Amino acid sequence: MLRAMEQGPQFSSDNPAQRALLLVGGGHAHVAVLADWIGRGPPANVHTVLLTPDRHLRYSGMVPGWLAGQHARDEGLVDLAALGRRAGVEWVQGRCIALDPQARMVTTDSGRAIGFDCASLDTGGVGRAAAILGEDPRLIDIRPIADFVSRIAAMPAPRRVVVAGGGAGGVELAFGLRNLVRADARPEVSLVTGPDGLLPGFSQAVRTRAATALVRQGIALHLADARLAGGAIMADDHSLEPADLIVAALGSAAPQWVKDSGLETDAQGFVLVDAHQQSTSHPHILAAGDVAARADRALARSGVHAVFAGPVLAANLRSVLAGKAPRRTYKPRWNNLYLLNTGDGSAIASYGPLSAEGRWVLALKHRIDKRWIARYAALAETA
């Protein structure tokens, strides 16, 4: 059974008691941990619990394609509970609202207390829409992505949309909403990027391709800050009204329970971890994905890093649970391949200074995305 202890065991190899591992969140890194448990067997003498608010992980990279009618709504789901059963992991539905690393206890939104000896955090960040833009009933944050999809699916097809955020997520959603498959007429879409402009951090070639695609599809581009003022959505001092839907793709903030936990964090409140994904203040806690920040290097908050950090996290969890120092380190590649769906049957490829565009790029994106989903579906099949 999971247990809370004042000091907790020291994970020594001669401790015969069963250890309790708590995986908080069902992000990309923890999916890789479950796959490792399935492939290599779970760590000996360890009882693992996975705590997630939803049974499924929704792969955000396929959401713009769903909007444009390229995928079914539930095509991009990973069944966390089924993977957990196959991995010998107990799935508990709930959301972490408090973490006490000293008492080794997590409190869920239902009031349940779950103790642990070792914990791993992969919950992602939280949305910043209200904090940055203000309150408005038309405003939908893309985080959490499952809630975003549910709200978009439940509402009537919008006629006029404003997307705030010029990163890859905001750009792809602007294209997806412009090509919304269930709309009788293509929605009018405005993309408000902020002063950093379109696709900051990408090469000029990619930015030029994206800007050209926006013009080709009639999406208005505003290189200004979005804000709500007097009930109206604005790009600086320019009104974007009327608008039926305001989508915020403004990056993630750290969950409040992380800030309140006593874990060492960076200036923004994300869990500070070392090169082994281990908390710099509490070595019995590891973290990966958007909830974490590396102390040794800056990493963009991108799902690709969580995917590649997952196997490293799995290996280091095995080490910590066995009373050994973690050895594996996630070393990002010099660059990563990004494939941006333009919603009209094409996509833009980005790899460092290189770029390409065409239907073949979209076919490549679909193949990569579906292969990732299929891998975990196959692992869960015999659950």
Characterization of this structure:
The protein is of the alpha/beta class. Among the domains are: 19-53 and 94-125 and 254-321, FAD/NAD(P)-binding domain (3-Layer(bba) Sandwich), CATH 3.50.50; 128-250, 3-Layer(bba) Sandwich (FAD/NAD(P)-binding domain). It is built from ten helices and 25 strands. The strands form eight sheets. Strands 5-2-1-9-21 form a five-stranded parallel sheet. A hairpin with a 2-residue loop joins strand 15 and strand 16. Helix 1 (28-40) packs parallel to helix 3 (80-87), helix 1 (28-40) packs across helix 9 and helix 3 crosses helix 10. The longest helix is centred in the last third of the chain and has 22 residues, at 359-380. It is globular and about 65 Å long. The model is unreliable at 1-15 (pLDDT under 50).
